[in-house]
Amino acid sequence: MEAQQQRVVAALEKDAACCGWNFCGQRLAVGSFDGTVSVYDSHDSSSAAASSPSHKWKVHTNGISNVVWLPPEAGDAIACVCVDGTFSIWEEVGEDNQTIVWRRCFLLESTSCGILDVKFRVFSESMKMITAYSDGHVKIFELVDALDLDKWQLQSDFQNMVDPVSRFGNYDCFSASIAWKQWEAQLQRAPASFVLGFNSDSPQLNSSKIWEFDEAHHRWIMVGELALPEEKGDGVNAVAWAPNIGRPYEIIAVASCKGIAIWHVGLNPGPDGRLSTKKVALLSGHDGEVWQLDWDMSGMTLASTGDDGMVRLWQCNLNGVWHEQAALDCGTVQT
Amino acid sequence: MPGIPSDSASLIPFSLEGSSQPTPIYPLQHGLRSPLRRIHISWSCGNLLHVTCLGSPPEHDEEMVGENDEIGGKAVEVTLGGAILEGNIGEDKRRRIAYESVKSFAFLHDKKISLAKMETGDNLSAPALTYWGQYTLEYSKSIRELLGIARLPRSLIEAPKTFLKEGEQPFGTKAAWELMEIFYVDMQMLSWLPERLVDWLEEYDSLLSKTESTVHAELENLQRKLTSLQVIENEPDYWNGLAATLAVGWLDMVVKLLRLHGSYDPDQFDKRETENGLVEAVVLLVSEMPRMRPDLPNRKLGICYQTKHDYIKGLEKWRGKVSGLEASPFWVHCSHHKTRDGLINLLHILLGDAKHIADATCHWLELFISHLLYIRPLTNGLEGMSNLAEKCMHLKPSANNGLTGLLVGILSENPEIVLADCLKAFGPWIVAHAVDLLTANSEYTDELLNEERYQLGGASIGELYMLVYTQALASHPLTWQVAPAYLSTCLNQGRGLLEILLLKQPVQNYRTVLKTLEICHLYELANISTHIMKMAGMYQWKHGHKGLGIYWFQQSRDKTRLSQIAHKLFDNISKSFSDDSFKQWEGLMELLGSDVGIAGGLEFLHKYRDFKKSLQQVGHGRTTEAGKKSTELLVQLMRNPSTPQRFWLPLLHDSVKLLEWTSGPLLGVSETNLLLGKLQELSMAKSRPDFYGGELTANALAAVRLALAKNLGRAILEES
């Protein structure tokens, strides 16, 4: 059997600095060093590679460091993080004469601390946005009006720490990674949960922690920590929460300097309010830093990429043993 | 969809062994200049992975800028896991098989559900199992038909020197399917297992190896040579080919080849009657070879025996004739040595001489089938066959490919290996469909493949393979619709994956949304369809198709969004009172109906619209009747507690011309007092911080007060 088939779907303009695919995998937003965003459309497998964007506009005078699509429940919208810390949300709208434009609907002016990661999720009645800042703060916003992306209300502001005493210190974070618990909760009104890890100068801040929203007290509580005692200070480069299509446990992947750890996490908290956690595998293969992790839609295959220029694919075999199934060699990467 | 096949490892095999094999590494064809700056990954639907490579920041030295520097990066879509089906077939055939096999699959599973409903216990009773076996056999046959008919000669009038069949190239997936049908499903035919394998090999011998010699490959060479050969019986390849063909039991081909012998030529000078008689005697013996099988297809040779007893009797008698011919004195009169040696070699094969058989065959599987046919024709236990296969592999070591590996797996009675090998060699389609074959007549396999496993997240092996197939189907926009039928049979994880698959479908296109909703309806996924309708509604609403947006929100009973739209409507109308802006919103009001939004809110807007319309008529006609009607509506609105306070002043201001009606007061004293009371309330409310005064100024308030005073004065005069 042929193991893979490749097709170039878009040739990006120069200055491309970051990118993000939308939920259906049909639209690609690319942020540039010159502060513009381009959107490329790739509708079907028979169409030729998109050589020019369908939309392009200036977001900011500074370069863009991250582009993230909002969930499709918000229409077609992206969030842009600029290198100076400016954060904006843009949505595609049809005007009266049916011309399609991208309009800015939300702006957070630059502050001394930049946004390291941002993730969105839709719940039955609302949409939430988590932003992780370079000072170690996590802010959770809620969309006030489901039809308008203009109004976001700050719901919570805390730090990724177990010990409340040491919270609200001043830390220097290099990167952060957030992953929402997916699907099942979205459709069954389960409490909102996410996992967050930092790569910072603070050992307490770094380890990946699972946070769950306590509806009764309207606050976020930490329900699990994904690090063995001796690893708690390790900086986390990436986290990914696998879609759960019916497993009796959740699977979360956490990448640190030691490799990619696969964790099994219980579905419900125990009497101590904590979820059961078990590290089932430590996958080493990337020769260097892991940049990103992503689960396929079944949560059976994990893809990872890093500064060794490889995309690695990981699977669990029929005996429950995790291993590298295949890899794609993208070539040398600038160090 | 799927690509070109090769024998490289598949990316999604879910093997048993896992890490023992070196990881296959594939280069990503992005064509960018090294070094790259960043690699971004994102899974799309199914096995589609988007890998976006971003190049290094541009060079500022213009002289250094080449053509490729204009490209900042490439987004590459990688379809992992390859084709859904082993691939020496076209894309259209693959897709057709995917579409059509789902019918047979769904039919079989419907039958399974019906049978289970009739049973009281957890397990099927013996009669139900018999029915199930029959249904599975029908299913297997229908899939086999779908995969393609057996090769037939192109014409009944065959070319005289053509002995090999021509037609559609055999197809590995079909060969594998038939092999599984032989061993797992067609239980009535188990007694004729060796003969079934002979038939199978005749069809698929060419697939045994691409690099090593096979009987089929030898015959192809011979076929090519035949046209240039003057005296065929002088050619060693002719006799080798004959021996090989006989060894694997393709008797009709043996007879046809023998009759190409030069001694049949009518125009010859030498006397070759004896030689010809010996050739024909062998032809006769070959044609009368006892076969342990119920029947033979048309044009196939041999004599069928259905019972072991009759067969043994027939075999002894026939072997006696073969031995008799071998010891015949006529051989000394055969002057053509190659013919004599060749024919005697054939007789040795017929008599089951192991050495001659081993010499005649090329591949271990051919040797294995030869043994079954001539030496151990009554073998039917898998253990015995497995030992024999091992012996043959030892005698004729050849690299195993997908088919031979599958046979070894079957003979070793390990269904997990069978499925894993099938997945590797033939893709996920066959595995998803073969689970029913493997479990049809074996309780053990049924338990093994359907047992829930914690390490697989509660899924069984059978379910896992089904998920793997649906992932492959989901990777293409033309096949994803087939996936739900398979996912619906996966009790643990099928529904979860189906929900995600449906939610992943784009919502821009109305028809696509309808198709997705149809599937939701079919599988009773009401919450998913609601979600999809909300997404479609948002997309349309945002893209300027307000009506379609509202339609989807209404379909999804999205009270939150409809209520927010109603609020917007309210705000917009209350902010701007011009007739034009009202017209702009009128269509939306119609769509929203009156029961949506804030308590009584839209009901008010509908009444407000009626009032505005009647005012327009007043403006055009200026009849007292129209004026009275408008005044009635005004009073109704002002009396209605659901009329928002912010609308009071605009309503009164709009009504100034009614209050100053020249031909007489339209409002009575009590009605005017009601309006004055409302105006008083408004004046008091102005001091409150939450008061919303709209765009109307204090002048408007004064104008209304004056008009009301005038009307009251005239009404008092009229009523007194």
From TrEMBL, chain A:
One Pfam short name: WD40
Species in which this protein is naturally found: Carex littledalei
Main location: nucleus
Keywords: Nucleus, Protein transport, Repeat, Transport, WD repeat
Stretches forming WD repeats: 283-315
SUPFAM superfamilies associated with the record: WD40 repeat-like (SSF50978)
InterPro entries linked: Sec13/Seh1_fam, WD40/YVTN_repeat-like_dom_sf, WD40_repeat_dom_sf, WD40_rpt
Single Gene Ontology MF annotation: structural molecule activity
An individual GO BP term: cellular response to amino acid starvation
Protein name: Protein SEH1
Listed PANTHER family: NUCLEAR PORE COMPLEX PROTEIN SEC13 / SEH1 FAMILY MEMBER (PTHR11024), NUCLEOPORIN SEH1 (PTHR11024:SF3)
Compartments where located: Nucleus envelope
Keyword Glycosyltransferase: no
Assigned GO CC terms: nuclear pore outer ring; Seh1-associated complex
Membrane-spanning intervals of the chain: none
UniProt record similarity statement: Belongs to the WD repeat SEC13 family.
Keyword Nucleotidyltransferase recorded: no
Top-level taxon of origin: Eukaryota
From TrEMBL, chain B:
GO molecular-function terms, A-Z: structural constituent of nuclear pore
GO cellular component, one term: nuclear membrane
Location in the cell: Nucleus, Nuclear pore complex
Main location: nucleus
One Pfam match: Nucleopor_Nup85
GO biological process: mRNA export from nucleus; positive regulation of DNA-templated transcription; protein import into nucleus
UniProt KW keywords: Membrane, mRNA transport, Nuclear pore complex, Nucleus, Protein transport, Translocation, Transport
Task performed by this protein: Functions as a component of the nuclear pore complex (NPC).
Subunit comment: Component of the nuclear pore complex (NPC).
Family named by the database record: Belongs to the nucleoporin Nup85 family.
Name used for this protein in its record: Nuclear pore complex protein Nup85
